[in-house]
């Protein structure tokens, strides 16, 4: 950031903004007395965990707040004009021309039944008097500017014909076509894979430099902050607790909450550990494959290799990580091992016994040895059953008496650091992190030998994620479990895995000890993956 | 990574920003639910307390008291042959029967038919829907049969079935319920197919829970909310269809007082004595409206998508 830029008048100024929450919420206001500004040519990152009010601020600036969340104090100034209570007609004029927004989910931000070109065209028709030919030329130029190949084809494509990254580029093109002074990006890369994320971040950075616009960038990810921010504002439950230049906030955070958040970011360097390589092999897959055939009666059959020739070995007391982007087949492998889906070929040996083709009846005694924790803590527990009933369900299925099962559940609640009174309550009374602890307890109630964590910490806030990771690590050690850890997040993998298998397009492209894979990646894809990890140049553990 | 003291401080976790009131609280707060259920409660009381609401036996008649206007004084002959004085609040029909008594007693029939139709349709629909959603082999054939049933107009099926079995309360209920079954089946099947993919069902599978237990414990309870809503709509349409069948003369026999029967008998004299149709018509409309309001309110307050719209 140059001196000249920082001195110029701010594009956006938010002064003492307070936005109320409806009655019966867990606090009175979504954000209280928040003040910050965004200058020309600057990227300000608003960072916070879920519920911190960061998206509410973005909606407040754009005038998109629902009626139940009224602005009760403060001002939003765009180029000095107070737009806090501006009429809808004025806001409509300003949107797209002076300020625009990039949304999180590119699939839902685009209309699925309109061609991409027509959707961008809508912005121009609404706000300019350009002739159709001029509009078309401008749209094609913008599509080219967001580095999309074959602009003519993209212009005529429907959103579903494009990849997630391409769709997000279209959304960015829509936001930038009228060269607005302020761009609000609300978690624009959260729904994307890490390699795509890196490209989109670079694109936003480049465009912002070229156009000199101010960007209000909302994210929960400190890696992204390190990658893109000029200045950082940290939000906690609606309070702006810290605001400053990026390096200052990331390296010398002043507020305790910021310190806690930054320390909770897992490090990319693997934790040094000496895995016990003498334990018995709990899980071995040999040539495991899952092929989906899209068989129509006529025409050619289409085959999708979700997983092919996967060979893994996992010993007792070890954690094996499967790392990959969406569609890499990592979850397919996990679900085959639990036999939630049937593999198409290969062997899955649990304690040496092949379970790949066992019929349901003979599979049942083996089910207890392999347990799984899923990604989404909000959907992993039946909302209509008490936590206690969920935890004792498995042991009861295998003939444990109710009293013994409840006793075991109590012990497990202590193990996952929750109060035994939680057993009497329903899942909706718990937060995401607590629910994930409950899910872990439910899996452990079966006394499994192999615990599979399928993106088990991906949906959690970074501070909660750190706690759950530590819990998993502790449990693995204490119960001498074998753990299969599926994740898309390299940082998480580095913290918890002894061995890592990197998957891409259904195949394991690299497999070795964590130190080896992280320290000296051999495969091109692994290297690309590491290069794309946001904030890789930053060592968050060294923050003062 | 976090040190162990942070483990205990779950305070850093904030749940959702807007606390969601429980489903029951939302249902209670809903205006439509309140109005609909109050009206229905009043109707249930009317049905239960019918003998004590100044009514006479709805089958009693007196030729001397034919075609009285609402509020008219007259006499009515009891089964024992005694003649007693009676005020005909809603007038009398061409046989000298008290329309007020017939309408009040008709409330019983309508409510019973509505509720029983909904229960029968839901019971069969749930059973068939669970089969279709779980057993892949049954799915295709079962749903094609349901498509077939749906292709026949509901009233025609009902008329045909009543014609075969002769009109009685159970026959009419079953005849009205059968055309509703495919719709419930479809709903349950689609719910089962969605819920079956939920992680908590997959977790139950990996906990070794037998399929039938998963059905009863994990899938069925989570279909309750949409089914309750669907049930109210079936109830409303059941009440209407019963009235239509009776009006057409193919429902319950004319000696049973139902709103449809009263209206059917008043049809011939509609020009001179519109009250014969007016009063049962009002009751029918209010009842169906109340049930539908209850259903709409339940749907709004139970549907999570609507509830999230803060």
How would you explain this protein's 3D organization?
The complex is a heterodimer of chains A (544) and B (310). Chain A has 544 residues and is of the alpha/beta class. Chain A is 37% helix and 25% strand. Chain A has 21 helices and 20 strands. In chain A, the strands form 4 sheets. Chain A has a 6-stranded mixed sheet with strand order 6-7-8-3-9-10, with helices on both faces. Mean pLDDT of chain A is 89; it is low at 1-7. Chain B has helices at residues 4-8, 23-29, 31-48, 99-134, 136-151, 154-165, 169-177, 181-195, 199-206, 211-219, 224-248, 259-266, 275-302, 304-307; strands spanning 72-77, 83-88. Chain B has a two-stranded antiparallel sheet. Chain B is 65% helix and 4% strand. The radius of gyration of chain B is 25 Å and the shape is elongated. Chain B is built from 14 helices and 2 strands. Chains A and B meet through helix 12, strand 16, helix 15, helix 17 and helix 18 of A and helix 1 and helix 9 of B.
Q: What distinguishing features does this structure have?
A:
heterodimer, A: 544 residues, alpha/beta, 6-stranded mixed beta sheet, 21 helices, 20 strands, disordered N terminus, B: 14 helices, 2 strands, elongated, disordered C terminus
What's a quick, concise take on this entry?
Chain A has 544 residues and is an alpha/beta fold. Chain B has helices at residues 4-8, 23-29, 31-48, 99-134, 136-151, 154-165, 169-177, 181-195, 199-206, 211-219, 224-248, 259-266, 275-302, 304-307, and strands spanning 72-77, 83-88. In chain B, a hairpin with a 5-residue loop joins strand 1 and strand 2 (83-88).
């Amino acid at each position: 950031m140059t001196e000249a830029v920082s001195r110029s008048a701010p594009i956006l100024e938010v002064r003492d903004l307070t936005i109320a929450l409806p009655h019966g919420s867990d606090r009175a206001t979504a954000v209280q007395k928040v003040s910050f500004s965004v200058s020309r040519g600057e990227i300000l990152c608003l960072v916070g965990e879920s519920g911190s009010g960061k998206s509410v601020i973005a909606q407040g600036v754009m005038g998109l707040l629902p009626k139940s969340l009224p602005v009760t104090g403060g001002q939003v100034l765009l180029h000095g004009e107070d737009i806090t209570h501006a009429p809808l007609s004025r806001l409509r004029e300003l949107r797209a021309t002076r300020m625009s927004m990039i949304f999180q989910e590119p699939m839902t931000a685009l209309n699925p039944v309109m061609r991409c070109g027509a959707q961008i065209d809508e912005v121009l028709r609404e706000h300019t008097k350009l002739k159709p030919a001029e509009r078309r030329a401008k749209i094609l130029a913008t599509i080219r500017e967001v580095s999309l190949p074959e602009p003519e084809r993209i212009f005529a494509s429907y959103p579903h014909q494009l990849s997630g990254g391409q769709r997000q580029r279209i959304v960015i093109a829509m936001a930038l076509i009228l060269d607005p002074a302020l761009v609000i990006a609300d978690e624009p890369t959260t729904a994307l894979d890490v390699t795509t994320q890196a490209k989109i971040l670079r694109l936003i950075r480049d465009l912002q430099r070229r156009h000199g616009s101010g960007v209000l960038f909302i994210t929960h990810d400190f890696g992204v902050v390190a990658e893109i921010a000029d200045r950082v504002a940290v939000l906690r439950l609606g309070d702006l607790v810290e605001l400053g230049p990026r390096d200052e906030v990331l390296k010398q955070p002043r507020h305790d909450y910021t310190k806690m958040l930054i320390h909770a970011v897992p490090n990319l360097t693997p934790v040094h550990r000496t895995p016990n390589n003498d334990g018995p092999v709990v899980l071995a897959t040999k040539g495991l494959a899952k092929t989906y055939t899209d068989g129509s009666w006529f025409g050619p059959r289409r085959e999708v290799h979700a997983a092919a020739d996967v060979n893994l070995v996992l010993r007792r007391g070890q954690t094996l990580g499967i790392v990959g982007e969406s569609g890499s087949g990592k979850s397919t492998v996990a679900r085959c091992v639990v036999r939630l889906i049937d593999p198409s070929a290969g062997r899955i040996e649990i304690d040496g016994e092949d379970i790949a083709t066992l019929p349901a009846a003979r599979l049942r005694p083996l089910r207890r040895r392999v347990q799984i924790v899923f990604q989404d803590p909000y959907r992993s527990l039946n909302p209509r059953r008490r936590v206690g009933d969920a935890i004792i369900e498995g042991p009861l299925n295998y003939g444990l008496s109710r009293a013994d099962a409840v006793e075991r559940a109590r012990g497990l609640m202590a193990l996952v650091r929750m109060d035994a009174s939680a057993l009497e309550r329903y899942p909706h009374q718990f937060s995401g992190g607590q629910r994930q602890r409950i899910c872990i307890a439910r899996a452990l109630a079966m006394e499994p030998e192999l615990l599979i964590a399928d993106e088990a910490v991906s949906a959690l806030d970074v501070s909660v994620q750190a706690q759950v990771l530590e819990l998993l690590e502790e449990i693995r050690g204490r119960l001498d479990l074998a753990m299969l850890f599926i994740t898309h997040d390299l940082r998480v993998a580095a913290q918890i895995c002894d061995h890592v298998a990197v998957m891409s397009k259904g195949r394991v492209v690299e497999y070795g000890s964590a130190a080896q894979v992280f320290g000296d990646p051999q495969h091109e894809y692994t290297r690309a993956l590491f290069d794309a990890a946001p904030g890789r140049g930053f060592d968050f553990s060294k923050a003062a | 990574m976090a040190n162990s003291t942070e483990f205990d401080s779950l305070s850093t976790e904030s749940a959702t920003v807007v606390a969601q009131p429980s489903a029951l609280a939302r249902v209670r707060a809903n205006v439509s639910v309140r109005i609909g259920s109050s009206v229905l409660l009043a109707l249930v009381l009317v049905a239960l307390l019918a003998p004590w609401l100044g009514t006479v036996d709805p089958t009693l008649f007196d030729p001397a008291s034919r075609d009285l206007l609402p509020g008219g004084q007259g006499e009515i002959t009891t089964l024992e042959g005694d003649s007693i004085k009676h005020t005909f609040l809603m007038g009398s029909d061409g046989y000298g029967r008290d329309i007020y008594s017939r309408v009040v007693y008709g409330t019983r029939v309508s409510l019973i038919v509505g509720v029983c139709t909904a229960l029968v349709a839901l019971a069969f629909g749930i059973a068939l829907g669970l089969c279709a959603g779980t057993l892949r082999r049954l799915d295709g054939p079962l749903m094609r049969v349901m498509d077939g049933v749906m292709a026949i107009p509901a009233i025609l099926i009902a008329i045909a079935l009543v014609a075969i079995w002769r009109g009685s309360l159970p026959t009419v209920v079953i005849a009205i319920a059968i055309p509703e079954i495919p719709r419930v089946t479809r709903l349950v099947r689609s719910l089962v197919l969605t819920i079956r993919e939920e992680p908590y069902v997959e977790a139950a599978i990996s906990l070794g829970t037998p399929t039938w237990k998963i059905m009863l414990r994990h899938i069925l309870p989570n279909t309750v909310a949409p089914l309750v809503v669907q049930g109210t709509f079936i109830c409303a349409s059941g009440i209407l269809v019963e009235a239509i069948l009776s009006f057409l003369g193919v429902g319950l026999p004319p000696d049973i007082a139902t709103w449809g029967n009263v209206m059917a008998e008043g049809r011939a004299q509609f020009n001179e004595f519109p009250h014969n149709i007016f009063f049962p018509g009002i009751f029918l409309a209010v009842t169906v409206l109340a049930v539908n309001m209850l259903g709409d309110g339940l749907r709004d307050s139970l549907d999570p998508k609507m509830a999230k719209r803060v």
